[in-house]
Fold:
Amino acid sequence: FGGRAIMVNDKMIVSAGKAGDLLVRVDADQHDALLSEPGAAQAEMGAGRRMGPGWITVSSEAIADDECLSFWVDAAMSYNKAVTRTNQN
Structure:
């Protein structure tokens, strides 16, 4: 993904980009609502190559403080836990 990824349960939750932005894996059902958060945008893998629902890029300015960064890590962890529970059943 072009950055340093954090993996939980063998799945990526976030990846820190070289420009300080954050690629976040979230529940696709929450995708549109989360895009309304400050600094959030549809993730792309290269110019014009949009990733699917559940992949969001957050600007470095929007995660500059711990509270904002925690919001996105929590959203990613919630999705990770839900997927892990589903896969265990």
User: Anything to note?
Assistant: The beta strands are 3-8, 11-17, 22-25, 40-42, 55-58.
